[in-house]
Amino acid sequence: MNDTQLRDNLAAERTRLANERTLLAYIRTALALAGAGAILLHFFPYHPWLWAIAGVLIGAGGLVTMVGAYRFVTVGRRIPGSRG
Fold first, then answer.
1. How far is CA 21 from CA 9, 26, 56, 68, in A?
2. Domain range annotation of the chain
3. Major location, coarse class (predicted)?
């Protein structure tokens, strides 16, 4: 393996790792949103308008998870030498 091939392989590996870090950031954000919704439901069970806000937060957490997974797969397919 020559120097150019080694640099290309290392660059692709860095890109794959960056893609994984981005997915983890999406998951962390989704968990924070869903957790905030769950906390609202737990501590304020008798406020109907907070139920709506909690539902939106939990739904946003699910949406962020789906967007993150979609981006992870689509970017992973564009990385040279990717297994996806």
1. 18, 9, 26, 11
2. 21-78
3. membrane
